Every structure is written in structure tokens, then in C-alpha cells.
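hiii so um. not sure if this is the right channel but i have a protein structure encoded as C-alpha cells and i wanna go backwards to a sequence. like what aa goes where. can anyone help
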């Protein structure tokens, strides 16, 4: 069975974490397969949005704990992070296309933090987010200590990570952890609609927006203004910018092609 399913529909790449009997917990194969799949998305210029979800009732329960047996295996965790999780979150942040996390069910541990590094995070009403690490004596990883305080503020992040609370989609929405949540019945349709909208926008402009946002996490105001200037110049050299201006003047909807 493929641990990661991949399908291109129009210009959206649908990636499904596929170990439903383990709540899509990550083993090495699934992490490496996800990395390869994200590389395919980067290389394929027909893909203009990437959609990540989980098979079955979960988004992902994080590291597969059934494969962690003793203290010897825990000793190699640094390696697991550098080979299995960090490359995934780095690929998502550096991908030159928007990535939407469609959190269909529980997202725990690294599963939660992989969702939290995506560009747009939407959830089904019954989904939840759990920083499960403290329950097993670990620290939050996969970029969680970077993104969560920036999303919800230092205090909320600190408490959520230490207590390992189960955060409902509604709570996650209210505290700014996610973009939106939808009733379960409408979730898939609504999440896909957002993905299709993203895929119809000026892809290069969105890539530059993503670069600017990445920089904003580490730069001061003056540096950020410089970055905006450089990236705006690049955006203004795209065909989609020309099309955007032309369509505005002709009072019609723009037809962006992503170049
Ligand atoms: O270097 C490193 O390795 C460090 C990397 C760390 C990254 C991490 O992600 S650490 C955190 C790992 N994840 C967890 O601690 C979460 C563990 N799971 C849970 O807390 C709960 O399962 C959930 C809250 C996610 C869901 O609860 P619930 O009640 O809906 O389902 P359940 O009954 O607990 O689980 C259903 C099945 O999935 C069950 O299997 P069974 O009994 O039906 O055969 C359960 O064992 C399995 N499962 C759930 N999570 C995992 C898992 N199997 C393996 N690994 C899991 N993480």
C-alpha cells in the first residue's frame, strides 16, 4: 500500500497521508515518500497549489510510536528529525506554490506541526490539534516551537504545548491557529474550493508573497521593506501582472496562467 497518495486534478496536487489504520502516523517510508512527492510538486509547473490531507478519520497522529521500542531508538531521534521531519517542513515552507493543509481529523505531534507550517490551514469541525509531545516526555518538533507561538501568541503556545490539550477546530479558529473550519459534511468541498481558488491566482506572485512572509518571521521592519521592494519588482515582471493590469483596464476577470 502506498503510504502517500498523489493525484493531480486540474492544477491542484492532492497529497493524502495514507496509513489510516495507524491514524496516518509517520514511519520512515511515509516521511521519505512525502518529501519525494513535494519535490515532484515543485518540479511540475502545471501544479499551482498543493493540498495535503489524511486518509480515514485522522490527518496524522505524528510519529509512529509502535516503531519506537526502547531508549536506544529514542537516542537516534535527532537523526529522525533531520531525515524525516525537518526536510518535510522545509520543503513546504520553500515550495514555490501555496500549500493548503486540509485537516480532516485529529492532527497530533508532528502531524499537527506539519499542518501548522502550511500556507493555509483549514479544518473539519470535528478535527482537533494536539501537541502530544509532553505526554511522552518529548518536546514539540517539526517547527512547532517556531510556528505555534507566532500563530497564537507565546502564552497560548506555551500552555498548549506543555499541557498537551486537545484543541478543537473551533478553538483553533478562534485563537488564530487556523484560517477557517467547516462543518464536516461541507469540509472537503470547501477545502477543495479554496485549493482551486489558490491554483487560479498568480502563482509566482503567491510564491513571492510566501518568500516575503517567510522573511517576516526573522527580519526587522527596515529589512522587510527592502525585501518587499525586491520581490515586488520580481512580481511586476511576471506575465500574470501584465494580465492583471490588462484585465482591470478591460473590466473583465483576469485569466492568470501562473507565469
Ligand atoms: O525523533 C523522533 O521520533 C521524534 C519525533 C516525534 C514526532 C512526534 O510526532 S511525537 C508524538 C507522537 N504522537 C503521539 O504521541 C500521539 C499518539 N496518539 C494519540 O494520542 C491518540 O491516538 C490520538 C489523540 C491521536 C487519537 O486518539 P483516538 O482515541 O481518536 O484514537 P486511538 O484509539 O488512540 O488510536 C487509534 C489507533 O491508532 C490505535 O491503534 P489500534 O489500537 O486501533 O490498533 C492507536 O494505537 C493507533 N495510533 C494512534 N496514534 C498512533 C498510533 N499508532 C502508532 N503511532 C501513533 N502515533
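sure thing!! here u go:
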Amino acid at each position: 500500500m502506498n503510504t502517500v497518495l498523489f493525484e493531480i486534478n486540474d492544477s491542484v496536487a492532492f497529497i493524502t497521508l495514507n496509513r489510516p489504520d495507524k491514524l496516518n502516523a509517520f514511519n520512515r517510508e511515509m516521511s521519505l515518500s512525502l518529501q519525494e512527492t513535494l519535490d515532484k510538486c515543485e518540479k511540475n509547473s502545471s501544479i499551482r497549489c498543493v493540498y495535503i490531507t489524511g486518509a480515514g478519520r485522522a490527518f496524522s497522529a505524528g510519529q509512529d510510536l509502535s516503531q519506537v521500542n526502547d531508549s536506544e531508538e529514542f537516542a537516534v531521534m535527532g537523526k529522525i528529525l533531520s531525515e524525516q521531519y525537518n526536510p518535510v517542513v522545509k520543503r513546504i515552507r520553500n515550495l514555490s506554490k501555496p500549500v493548503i493543509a486540509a485537516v480532516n481529523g485529529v492532527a497530533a505531534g508532528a502531524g499537527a506541526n506539519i499542518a501548522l507550517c502550511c500556507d493555509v490551514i483549514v479544518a473539519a469541525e470535528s478535527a482537533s490539534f494536539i501537541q502530544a509531545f509532553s505526554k511522552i516526555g518529548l518536546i514539540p518538533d517539526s517547527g512547532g516551537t517556531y510556528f505555534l507561538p507566532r500563530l497564537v501568541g507565546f502564552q497560548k503556545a506555551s500552555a498548549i504545548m506543555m499541557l498537551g490539550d486537545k484543541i478543537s477546530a473551533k478553538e483553533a479558529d478562534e485563537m488564530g491557529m487556523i484560517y477557517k473550519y467547516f462543518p464536516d459534511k461541507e469540509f472537503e468541498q470547501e477545502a477543495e474550493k479554496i485549493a482551486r481558488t489558490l491554483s487560479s491566482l498568480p502563482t509566482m506572485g503567491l510564491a513571492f508573497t510566501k518568500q516575503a512572509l517567510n522573511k517576516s518571521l526573522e527580519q526587522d521592519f527596515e529589512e522587510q521593506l527592502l525585501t518587499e521592494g525586491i520581490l515586488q519588482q520580481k512580481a511586476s515582471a511576471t506575465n500574470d501582472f501584465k494580465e492583471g493590469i490588462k484585465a482591470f483596464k478591460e473590466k473583465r476577470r483576469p485569466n492568470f496562467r501562473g507565469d
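oh and Residues 77-94 form the longest helix (18 residues).
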